[in-house]
Structure to design on (802 residues):
């Protein structure tokens, strides 16, 4: 399936393979020298998209006013509500419950299961189907220091260093110390972890980790966990009510400023519902579909930063929303899968990035931002990338070497989703390398939480990718699946505890009214509404003629 | 506004013969549109002006939200695929198949036993399987669906778990089954039973949990958390990276 000019470059990759195989057998750091702190800083400053001049701009309203955040995020924060907060009738809730969970991905399901175990009743507001989420997509795996060669303390050090020492230490400690428990709990739910012949969990290397710590379930790790969680949620229909295709568009507070539920929007009937709850948990995931800096993304259709917008208007502070994670290995060829994720597990199994001459140019498992910046340098300044017919550029990720290193059949067994993905388009990754370039992958920051998953708003909890602090400015592979499990659980338990004594007062949208006033004061025009809810891929020409299908909401 | 072509459908300002080579005609819900030849079915719908609400999830072949049926003009065959993974063909007829919630039994996994009878007890309709293999043909993951249903009838949980492992629960098998079996829900039940009760468990994990419970790492954690940023950086950059990949 590769055109001839690409094949020519592939032959160079094949020519250097035996030598590279020797290096890999000698140990990971023999393959290519890892970067020093100074080298990392330099390549990041020069080549990481976050450091380009228009990547960030100052936000003029709200709790982070005056800070420079990712420009696309600021666009949504400085936007207007989908509803008219003065007109909305708050006197008659359509639903009442103990805990409202906004976002039915992994974090939302985990929170729901632990909340009901602690006696609460739950409603999940979900934008798509339950489980249509980034959680369904993770391939590589989940980190947990479960084997003797490793420990939660080493895990801690890897995370803090990978996050450039900006992580909130208490969050990292909570994450690493709870990891082995989560592994066990998920197993008891039914998750089929990969194991060795003794039944111990197999561990793989990941970017920025100093031990093999990545647990997996083939390369359907996320799907395996998510479908177990979803099945279990569906086993509790009396305690968990799931409202699919009903995203939340605004939080509701009470007159003391406590979280008290949300306004949902029925995507099909375009009706707005009021859900009154004693506590609210945001698990809306990330923001890949904002296509920051024009990058393709690995994220699911609903990853549009909605939770950030809701919480921000209600007064919650955001942390590290100036940093974006670009996954080094997004597919660039064939065109139909451009931007799709090539799991880091490919490198964890020994796959090597090489340039158009078949040469190594980077340590294969640097932290993601460093690895991505190196790829960009190779393709720009050094002009060692391979161009695709549609004008994209990338470097090779040599996968056939994996079988040579680990034995025939490894790729088929460990990476079936990858094999299938490329096979659908006529490429056999056991024989040919893949062409890759960084792709928009993960929201490093988010709504600031503490180790109890609490925010600055009483009764508002956040877990998973929507939260900020745990990963600093750069998350390492395998820690976000762990994140939504650990903090989803904590949010569920703490919210269930909190509702036992809380009294919700009069419901209000005053925070939205105030926010609108702030927007007006700084002169922000009324042309953008948020949350975005769904991205729009309709071509301009068609769009111009679609006069009634803008996502403005019916109360505007 | 576009002129009508000979077939009376919209061609977007260009007559059919002027359409660039890389554009192909497809029929969406019976109406003709020209879309880029490299589009997936999902891309074609959007190019034509559809804002998808249902029918798109991961957009990468992992969630099963986009199961779709299509037909090509010369064939009587109804074909299946994932809209996000299938490239359009000229004159393809497209329609979106909404995901319909099929029967899922409510059970308490803690109380189930991984016996040979359990799958049949919870989903007795599997025994209505007529071995027509339509489910297998419909599977966009190319799984041996009928084989795992047959294994389920025999009560071979392990086999069902492994054969169904790559299932993305798109529902196409169940949509096609003349015996009204919900294959994918049988699969998840078997996998949960396998993962929970049948998989061999090693000694390392329980040992680690015990160590944590006994506070083995508490001192070390406290120490590392008390380091100044400078010292922490030093320790990080000096840490041993020379582990074996395999
Ligand atoms: C392709 C891919 C591969 C990955 N691989 C790995 C990996 O190997 N290891 C790892 O650790 N991490 C990985 N990650 C990251 C990890 O999967 C996610 O960070 C994590 O699953 C996020 O979980 P979550 O529950 O916070 O969010 P999600 O799972 O994204 O769930 C959020 C849910 O909320 C819904 N939602 C959004 N807005 C609203 C709203 N307004 N109202 C209601 N619902 C809403 C969304 O549609 C979604 O269903 C990967 C991510 C992707 C995209
Ligand atoms: S949208 Fe998830 S499989 Fe196609």
């Amino acid at each position: 399936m590769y055109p001839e000019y690409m094949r020519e470059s592939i032959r160079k990759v094949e020519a250097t393979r035996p030598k590279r195989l020797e290096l890999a057998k000698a140990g990971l750091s023999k393959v290519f020298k890892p970067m020093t702190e100074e080298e990392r800083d330099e390549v990041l400053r020069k080549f990481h998209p976050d450091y380009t001049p228009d990547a960030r701009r100052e936000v003029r309203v709200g709790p982070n006013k005056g800070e420079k955040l990712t420009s696309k995020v600021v666009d949504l924060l400085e936007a207007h509500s989908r509803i008219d907060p003065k007109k909305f009738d708050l006197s008659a809730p359509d639903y009442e419950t103990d805990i409202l969970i906004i976002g039915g991905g992994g974090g939302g399901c985990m929170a729901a299961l632990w909340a009901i175990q602690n006696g609460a009743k739950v409603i999940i507001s979900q934008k798509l189907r339950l489980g249509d989420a980034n959680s369904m997509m993770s391939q590589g795996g989940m980190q947990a220091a479960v084997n003797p060669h490793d420990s939660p303390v080493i895990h801690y050090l890897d995370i803090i260093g990978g996050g450039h020492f900006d992580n909130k230490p208490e969050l990292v400690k909570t994450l690493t110390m709870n990891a082995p428990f989560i592994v066990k709990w998920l197993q008891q739910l039914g998750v089929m972890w990969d194991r060795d012949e003794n039944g111990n969990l197999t561990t793989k290397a990941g970017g920025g980790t100093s031990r093999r710590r990545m647990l997996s379930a083939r390369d359907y790790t996320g799907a395996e966990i998510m479908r177990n969680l979803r099945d279990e949620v569906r086993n509790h229909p009396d305690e968990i009510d799931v409202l699919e295709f009903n995203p939340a568009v605004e939080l509701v507070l009470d007159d003391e400023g406590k979280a008290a539920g949300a306004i949902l929007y029925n995507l099909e009937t375009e009706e707005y519902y009021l859900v009154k709850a004693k506590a609210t948990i945001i698990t809306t995931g990330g923001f890949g579909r904002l296509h920051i800096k024009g990058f393709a993304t690995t994220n699911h259709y609903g990853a549009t930063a909605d939770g950030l917008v809701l919480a921000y208007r209600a007064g919650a502070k955001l942390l590290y929303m100036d940093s974006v994670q670009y996954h080094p290995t997004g597919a660039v060829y064939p065109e139909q899968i451009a931007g799709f994720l090539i799991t880091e597990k490919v490198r964890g199994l020994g796959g090597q990035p090489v340039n158009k001459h078949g040469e190594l140019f980077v340590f294969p498992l640097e932290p993601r931002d460093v690895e991505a910046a190196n790829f960009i340098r190779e393709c720009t300044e050094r002009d060692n990338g391979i161009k695709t017919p549609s004008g994209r550029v990338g470097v090779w990720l040599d996968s056939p070497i994996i079988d040579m290193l680990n034995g025939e059949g490894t790729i088929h067994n460990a990476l079936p989703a990858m094999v299938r993905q490329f096979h659908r388009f006529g490429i056999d990754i056991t024989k040919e390398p893949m062409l890759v370039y960084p792709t928009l992958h993960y929201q490093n920051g988010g709504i600031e939480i503490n180790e109890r998953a609490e925010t600055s708003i009483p009764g508002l909890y956040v877990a998973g990718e929507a939260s900020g602090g745990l990963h600093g400015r750069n998350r390492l592979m395998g820690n976000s699946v762990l994140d939504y499990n650990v903090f989803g659980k904590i949010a569920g338990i703490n919210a269930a505890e909190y509702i036992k004594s809380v009294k919700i007062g009069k419901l209000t949208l005053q925070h939205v009214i105030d926010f609108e006033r702030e927007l007006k004061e700084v002169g922000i025009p009324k042309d953008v509404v948020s949350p975005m809810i769904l991205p729009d891929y309709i071509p301009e020409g068609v769009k111009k003629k679609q006069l009634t299908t803008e996502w403005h909401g019916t109360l505007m | 506004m576009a002129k009508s072509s000979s077939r009376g459908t919209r061609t977007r300002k260009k007559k059919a013969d002027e359409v660039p080579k890389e554009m192909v005609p497809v029929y969406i819900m019976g109406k003709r549109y020209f879309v880029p030849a490299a589009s997936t079915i999902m891309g074609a719908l959007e190019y034509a002006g559809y804002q998808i609400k249902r029918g798109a999830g991961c957009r990468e072949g992992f969630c099963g939200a986009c199961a779709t049926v299509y037909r090509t003009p010369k064939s009587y065959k109804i074909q299946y695929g994932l809209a996000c993974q299938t490239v359009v063909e000229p004159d393809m007829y497209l329609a979106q198949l909404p995901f319909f919630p099929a029967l899922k039994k409510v059970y308490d996994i803690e109380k189930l036993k991984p016996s040979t009878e359990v799958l049949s007890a919870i989903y007795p309709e599997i025994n209505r399987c007529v071995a027509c293999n339509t489910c297998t043909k419909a599977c966009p993951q190319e799984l041996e669906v009928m084989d795992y249903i047959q294994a389920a009838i025999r009560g071979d949980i392990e086999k069902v778990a492994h054969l169904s492992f790559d299932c993305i629960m798109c529902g196409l098998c169940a949509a096609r089954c003349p015996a009204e079996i919900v294959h994918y829900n049988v699969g998840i039940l078997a996998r949960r039973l396998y993962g929970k009760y049948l998989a061999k468990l090693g000694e390392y994990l329980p040992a680690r949990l015990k160590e944590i419970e006994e506070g083995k790492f508490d001192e070390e954690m406290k120490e590392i958390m008390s380091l100044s940023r400078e010292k922490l950086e030093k320790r990080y950059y000096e840490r041993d990276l020379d582990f074996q990949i395999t």
The longest strand of chain B covers residues 23-28. Chain B has three domains: 23-96, 109-198, 205-237. Residues 1-20 of chain B have pLDDT under 50 and may be disordered.
